[in-house]
Amino acid sequence: MILYANDTNVLVIDTNEEALQTKLSLLMKQLENWFLKNGLFINTTKTAAMSFHLCCSKPPFKPRILLQNTEVKYMPEVTFLGMCIIENLS
What we know:
two-stranded parallel ribbon, 8 strands, about 25% helix, about 25% strand
């Protein structure tokens, strides 16, 4: 999992879904604290998550992401730096 916040990139990897959820929840709290300490604000209404995957029969695991007590919604398509990115990378 890679999180982008302007120029902030974070990678969280685990093959166990429960361990991934735990790591992700801890990381999100750390990010919130870092933004708060540095006087930065997060626009939760413009924040989106994407789960990249290839076409397959099993749907990808999408862990629950909370940011400032707001659930981040998964989007199948986002525009990032003027590029349209689609979750199945087609």
